[in-house]
Queue: 2 jobs
Job 1
Amino acid sequence: MSARKLHLAVAQMGPVQRSDSRQRVVARLLEMLREAHSRGATWVTFPELALTTFFPRWSMEDPAEVHAFFETEMPGPLTQPLFDAARALGVGFYLGYAELAGGVQYNTSILVGRDGGIVGKYRKIHIPGEAATREGQAVQHLEKKYFEVGDLGFPVWQTPDAAIGMCICNDRRWPETYRVMGLQRVEVVMVGYNTPSGYTQWDEPLHLRMHHHLLSLQAGAYQNACWVAAAGKAGVEEGNPMIGGSCIVAPTGEVMVRTFSEDDEVINFVCDLSASENYRANIFNFAAHRRPEHYGMIVSRKGAQAPDGGA
Ligand code: ING
């Protein structure tokens, strides 16, 4: 099988503090976009909520205070330079941001093509955390308060280079996310994330954060025969540490390249897309081997029930 090469980059970000302006953040993103291009990459993945600090850690009631973290247009005047650079360099990108759309708040990412035009949009579906402030808890995780469930599903876009899909943070832990894209012959899944490593809200040792992150990406890539390019916002944001571990995973399930730091850092890898075709023609030939007639419960049942029908 002949090789089909796609040169991917992942642009991990160090922390974004509350006082950092959009201009300053966009300048960091631009620098990494240029770095990726200088290495020959043609697509770059940026993190979830890349333009701001991870604000769901705070309880806020004033809508104006909350909306300051949201974008009402994309591109807007402050993000336009990213689109201009994409066109000038011929480099496409994934960008996560908080979206205010007709009064509704979403945790969103867009895919921007190598011509600087928007290819597609997706909104995070599995929203983690709480809808209401937990009293007495120093750090909140209020994504359910600030974001509605995404209403766009898990689309895949056929770009001139590859079939590309998107995933945001917690969505990467759910096999359904990758499977819906796998069924659309996705070749590259781009993922942005912000995963705290400084506290637990249930009984789980902190070292497992990195293990579960990598486990989820590697399983999703292998079981759906796709490449996964994952970019985190890492380091200590407003006193709150977050994992790094941004990486590019092959359809073999292997991590091919991974960040070294918890700061702004570009990694890149020349991906052979024919690896997807190889798995899809053999062990994971869905048309030949899947048995959807036995999977009905996956869509008919939401919560787990004991075999005797109990709760
Ligand atoms: N962050 C987290 C994630 O899935 C989370 C959510 C909450 C992780 C609690 C760990 C513990 O990585 C986002 N942004 O979805």
Note: Residues 22-38 form the longest helix (17 residues).
Job 2
Amino acid sequence: MNTPRSDAFIFFGATGDLATKQIWPALLALSKAGRLDMPIVAVGRKDIGSDAIRAKAKKSLDESKTFEADAFEQFSKRLSYVAVDYDDPSTFDALKVAVGQARRPLSYVALPPDVFEKVAANLAHAGLASDARLVLEKPFAHDSESAKALSEALYAFFPEQALFRIDHYLGKEQVENIVYFRAANPLFEAAWNREHVASVEITMAENFGVKGRAEFYDAVGAIRDVVQNHLLEAVACLALDLPEEGGHAALRGARTRLLSQVSELSHESLVRGQVRGYRDEPGVAKDSSTETFAALRLFIDSPRWAGVPFYIRTGKSLAVSITDATVRFKAAAHPVLDDREPAAANTFRFRLSPDNAIALVANVKSPGEAMIGEPGELVLRRSSAGALKPYERLLGDAIDGDASMYAERGAVEESWRVFDAALKADSTAYIYEEGSWGPEEANRVGPETGWANPAPSAP
Ligand code: BG6
């Protein structure tokens, strides 16, 4: 990589929930690895001061059990805090002072998309946009039109090659493994098409709600929070045409090509849900119709996938916190040997969260005299030892100027296109109970045999 490294890290949204859960641990890890040897400037609206941000960072590290005294001491020496007013460009001048001699700052913006343009303009006003990089959190805008307009507006301050549209799913070891597994096992890849695959199903279930981030979430909802980005990128990894050349840049293009083939979702193929009690959360509008659950059925308009349904489901406050992506192959039409029923369909289940595993359902003979059998599961578990956490991986790449594991502009716009019509349609958000699998109505768009509810792995 011959692009120069960034030499200052400016962190917008440093007091938010994402910072606490994911970003401080990632920054400490980068610092420990010697990749963040530069001023780190945390930015927020409240005038809390540098000591308070150091205390917040420490608390986050304590909570994620990643605190290390020596490493933190080095890290916190470089960490300062600046309060800004997004409507007052002159407040950004203090950022320029805080980065000192740095000439190639990277700004990471973990804020809602409606302030991205203002942040970019104010950074430019303060002289922090030239030779600089801008990493923008998802969701990037709220539909395909606004995503296009946002990119165009940002170009007044940052060229395309300085923009990094982050999707932390792309930095997940488990998501990368989908592509590797397909590429490195030609036996399975030979059957990875409409001739053999009956359907693909992804469930991203979370057993927690929106506490602490209700204000952000209520303006966004499940589709814009995780489906348009994380889950569609997972679909891209499951379905893309493997590029002949290696490297992440080729995969980035392959994902965009696949996303451009996903058909627009009709509103009949979408069911939205809202968990009971959501409207009572502080920060949520009393008459909110925001969905905390979505179930949908997509198709990919390509010779390889025509007619194969891709079922997607996600929700907050569901029964478990597990994400599974299952590729279900066509079952045999007739029973074999002494079986009375056709054997179960083969499936591959990729566990994307919380652990890293692949399970293959195959049929084996049942003990006894008759030639009859039953399905069993072969499970391949991977340890996460040695894996970089997604934000450590991706923010480290951005500091190095490598955007190949970021979403391309085209990928973002194509994935918004899929949802444009359905998001405009005025649909009901069906109420479901906390700890359930979402509203009954979700079955309307799910597999004929019902959604597969992920279960925690056996020890
Ligand atoms: C974030 C969403 O992008 O992804 C959250 O905003 C969601 O609502 C999270 O909980 C899930 O990510 P992970 O890596 O914990 O599965």
Note: The chain is about 30% helix and 20% strand.
